[in-house]
Amino acid sequence: MAKGRDNWLLTPSAMGEVDAAAAASGIDSFGLMEKAGQAVTAAVLKLFPGGERFVVLCGPGNNGGDGYVAARALQESGAAVALYHLGDPSKLKGDAATARSRCPVPAEALETYFPMRGDVIVDAIFGAGLARSVPPVVVDIVRRVDEAGAPVVAVDLPSGIDGRTGTVMGAAFKARHTVTFMTRKPGHLLLPGRLHCGSVETVDIGIPFRLVEAKDVHLFVNGPQEWLAALPTTDATAHKFRRGHLTVFSGPATATGAARLAAAAGLRAGAGLVTVATPPDAIAANAAHLTAVMLKAVETGNDLDDYLRDERRTAFVLGPGFGVGPKARAFVTALAATGRHLVLDADGITAFAEDPQALFSAFADGAPRLVLTPHEGEFARLFPDLADDPALSKVDRARQAAARANAAVVYKGADSVIAAPDGRAVINENAPASLATAGSGDVLAGIVGGLLAQGMPAFEAAAAGVWLHGEAASKAGASLTAETLINHIDRWH
Ligand SMILES: NC(=O)C1=CN([C@@H]2O[C@H](COP(=O)(O)OP(=O)(O)OC[C@H]3O[C@@H](n4cnc5c(N)ncnc54)[C@H](O)[C@@H]3O)[C@@H](O)[C@H]2O)[C@H](O)CC1
Ligand SMILES: [K+]
């Protein structure tokens, strides 16, 4: 499955470099702006064929330039158009100045705009060049538009959204629809930016895609193109041992459900065999609920050493319901020494809060064998400096964490980011809101463990696991529980 426009992501600065490369290769840059403005016009007219008045808000850069093109094209279509500008339009430069000079619509200062009933707003104030918090006049206009409930179509990005991080810089429009150019930007997927974009349309404005590909940014929307080639196939003749053996470590008698959810999910994800390794006091609780999944008592370090002697036990999940004490740290250290694969989740992560370096050192050598699946709070426990650095996007944080831990990191959320130590990263977009339910994280850990058990590399298993989890949730419907989610996990091939 090829990487294409739909799953490619460029940061605004990389997009700017692509623009510059296009201009250097002889492509007419005003032609690009013209196509951008025309595409916005087409989207606006399609979405609002009965719009009474189109109000174009133009900023001081090329985003505003796109707006001047759109204002002219909307007027040429016979629509009523009003135009408001931020800053002194006589100071516009280059293509934006050209676009303004060709726009016959009279313009007024932005602060004088008060929405009227029937207005449809084209937001061309800031796009890729937003560099700091929006000025007070934009904060005011965003508020007026919100209060009036007027629909907004955003050019490139809703003004106020940082295209690199998805952060709201002071205030930002909540668009009904966003028209962006060549590829989406991280801010269209990362929260809260995603919630401000409405539907997002990516328009080819004529920059050859080879110039986009030349920017080797290693950032994509998560999808099968990233990992399908590494997904284990189900071969009818495959022996169950060849499909790997996943072990999930259970917590004490009072906390066994999470491990069973992970185990059942691992089986569904294709592991040939799955065992719940349980403290003796929890055998009865686990035995009462397991059928296809096997059960084995593992209490002490010696028990674990014995258990690990069988090299066919290829992958492990530790954390769901496990408890955060020294036992978790000792077990993880022993597992690391085997050279096999581990998903460390929940309590397993928190157990290393006081000494994250001990965890990173244990997995420092060789190809990544560890998958970490922290939500925001757990991430901050292992990587407090990265969590606190406001300059970093969620992608930056996940990437730096992956490099530090020599692990595939799944930084969870509605906008999960999966990153590898070598810098590859994907942003996930297929997770429905219904996934925010008890036990959903345990199921994810189990899916990833099941894929690791079958020999999938850490980053691919992590990215595939997150995507399959999202697909399962969509199929399970709005009232899903962790149990019904498991029944909808599909291995895909
Ligand atoms: N290939 C493409 O994607 C094309 C994109 N186009 C459009 O161009 C903009 C990017 O244009 P740029 O001039 O770089 O940036 P902006 O217009 O977003 O803003 C820059 C402008 O605004 C000033 N500024 C930035 N932040 C603030 C702030 N907080 N307060 C006040 N002023 C601010 C800054 O100093 C500049 O003057 C892209 O989004 C597309 O819409 C091209 O039209 C075609 C090719
Ligand atoms: K905009």
Automatic annotation (TrEMBL):
InterPro entries: Carbohydrate_kinase_pred_CS (IPR017953), CARKD (IPR000631), Nnr (IPR030677), Ribokinase-like (IPR029056), YjeF_N_dom (IPR004443), YjeF_N_dom_sf (IPR036652). Its EC number is 4.2.1.136, 5.1.99.6. Homotetramer. Catalyzes the dehydration of the S-form of NAD(P)HX at the expense of ADP, which is converted to AMP. Together with NAD(P)HX epimerase, which catalyzes the epimerization of the S- and R-forms, the enzyme allows the repair of both epimers of NAD(P)HX, a damaged form of NAD(P)H that is a result of enzymatic or heat-dependent hydration. Catalyzes the epimerization of the S- and R-forms of NAD(P)HX, a damaged form of NAD(P)H that is a result of enzymatic or heat-dependent hydration. This is a prerequisite for the S-specific NAD(P)H-hydrate dehydratase to allow the repair of both epimers of NAD(P)HX. AMP binds at K412, G413, A414, D415, S416, G441. Residues 223-493 form the YjeF C-terminal domain. It comes from Ciceribacter thiooxidans. This is Bifunctional NAD(P)H-hydrate repair enzyme.
